[in-house]
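User: Could you write out the 3D structure of this protein bound to adenosine-5'-triphosphate? I've included everything you need below.
Assistant: Certainly. Input first, then the structure.
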Amino acid sequence: MPGTVQSIERAAAVLRLLAGGTGRLTLGDIAHSLDLAKGTTHGILRTLKAVGFVEQDRVSGHYQLGAAVLRLGTSFLDINELRSRSINWADPLAARSGEAVRIGTVLDGEVLVVHHVFRPDDTFQTLEVGALLPLHATALGKALLAYSAAGAHPAPDLDRFTHRTLVTARALSTELNHIRTVGHSVEVEEFTPGEAAVAAPIRGHGGLVVGAIGISGHVERVCDTHYQPHPRLVAYVRDAARAVSRDLTAAER
Amino acid sequence: MTESYVVAIDQGTTSTRCIVFDRRGQLVSLAQQEHKQYFPKPGWVEHDALEIWRNVERLGPEALRRAGITESQVAAVGIANQRETTVVWDRVTGRPVGHAIVWQDTRTDTLVNRLARAPGADAVHERSALPLATYFSGPRVRWMLDRTPGLRERAERGEVLFGTMETWLIWKLTGGLHVTDVTNASRTMLLDVHTLDWSPESLAFFGIPREMLPEVRPSVGVFGTARSAFPGVRIGAALGDQQAALFGQTCFTPGEAKCTYGTGSFLLLNTGAELVRSTHGLLSTVAYQIDGEPAAYALEGSIAITGSLVQWFRDQLELIASAPEIETLARTVADNGGCYIVPAFSGLFAPHWRSEARGVVVGLTSYITKGHLARAVLEATAWQIREVVDAMNADSGLTLKTLKVDGGMTADNLLMQFQADVLDVPVVRPLASETVSLGAAYAAGLAVGYWPDLEGLRQNWHRAAQWLPTMDSALRDREYGNWKRAVSRTLDWIEPS
Ligand SMILES: Nc1ncnc2c1ncn2[C@@H]1O[C@H](COP(=O)(O)OP(=O)(O)OP(=O)(O)O)[C@@H](O)[C@H]1O
Ligand SMILES: [Mg+2]
């Protein structure tokens, strides 16, 4: 088979075998089933163990599917680590834009707010870390959806929050396509009347989108009279997203 | 006209950062690198000063590159540094004599005990406003002079030089300028905090030759011009990292305070032109001195081990892969399960000052999981801060109304909420968590007129986050009681030798 990678095929076979079996398998079982040398099999198992796809029982040494395989669809970057690594870039974004900043990741079909910087006007505001937001009706959510597998097939009935919320799969699909083209998302009174937001994806290793960062504020401040976000604000958001992504993928800061 | 910037070097205990700031005090770029920690014996902590210098030499240009700017666009560079860490080097070759001895190092404990009983000890305490403790650099210099054959003679001949980290870096940056600033000098025990110069009596007490000491300068003022790392750029300021954070938080008025959560944690209260002597276990220290103006002083509550307990949990126990994961792990349980950790790794600093104390984990039962331990790790930081806040309230006669915080641990929401809960006051984070660097940048920018005055800097301070207390007071009192009992278990562990 030209163009395929043998070790990945073998790794896939190991995973299928572990997923199909009822109990735990020994190294010998796996090597025997796949007709592979023990050394080769061990190398594959060790790599799969390192990425969390395989677990090994500490006492018996038997192998089974790892928890990460079951959580493949959810974030692999610890949310508190994401906050720590982005805090230095979220602050300047708030300062430059004059708006509140939020960072979100996907959790069970919603946006989980993992970091929140107040709008820098020293008015009373409440920390919203831990809040959940709808994916389809927010800039953060749409930026996350646009680059996730879930975004490829939006749910058919979407909750309506305002008369501007995108509630059909088709409208949302078009929007997500547009986001992938331009590289950022915009929300204009789709979740809260009078509020607008801009967001961009944060990428981790391998280009995987691990979160989104964005600003939100009064529509009159964020947008021009045609309900388009000010290009200056869009640029700030994209710069911040790029800076965080660079930090996440750099071996050192 | 091309935009200009100010650069800060934050030479910390675990890492060195170079940060470029813009006119609004916002971070433009950052380059950071950790350096190796040497633990040759229990209680000993060392750094390689040359490694640190090489990091600065590399990180400076790297930060400029990331900002897309050149040296000609840098108005000034400011230095903030880990304090009390002691470097001795050869004036001619520039080679350090052994490793730098780090502020957490307790090797001078026997020496300090002996000196404490020597005649003149009270007067040293009086002049330096510091208690005799292993924490400060003076005893370290004495230890090196005693232990290194021939070093004392070379020091007397001016062949070897002493400096804290900023002195070492300025010497390397300028190619031979031997200076320190008042804040760093105030941590040696050798400075007279009123005259702001080396005290001949204190030098005699410690047996340290004047020839090896740097010249003491104001913190804010041009020290010289860099020849390497930032060729041609003026060095506009140097301050100890904690004083820099006070400056970065714009605590310029007496009564303003901040707490920085890094390797250790440090609460500083600006007391203005007046040096206030603590009766509750705090230190008096120089906060900053602007060239041509009188010095401002501060009361300080120093805690040796806070973030480094998280690092210990990560590197020595290997229960987490990264520091922020401590919060994830701590959130797997609802409370500490009755477990408390008191990290007296270097003895206890403020407000106890007990060098013979060592760390304990108490309340262990078979119920305790790693989640409970993670909670106890985070709670240890918050309770230690509570102790120094209590001391500060008692000393100042005022009650702290909100706590301004900064530093790496403020990214931890569980910790910040718990901090608000145990203090029963709001905890506020400003729109700049790298306040150590920001303070060094502010100070350097002021020195060269990049920023006009302190008032202008204040306008840059904005609230980025706030945590409000929600804990029931009975629970708070009970937990604080448990914490105090846990602290009492650490005392008298190391037996006098
Ligand atoms: N999310 C977190 N929760 C708890 N602790 C954390 C978190 N993130 C970082 N830390 C701890 O904070 C410390 C890092 O903070 P910071 O970067 O302010 O310190 P530092 O400036 O490097 O310290 P120093 O100046 O002494 O080298 C580390 O000790 C780390 O263990
Ligand atoms: Mg620091």
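The interface with chain B takes residues 78-81, 83-85, 87-89, 91-92, 94-96, 116-118, 120-122, 125, 127, 129-130, 252-253 of chain A (CB under 8 Å).
User: Perfect, thank you.
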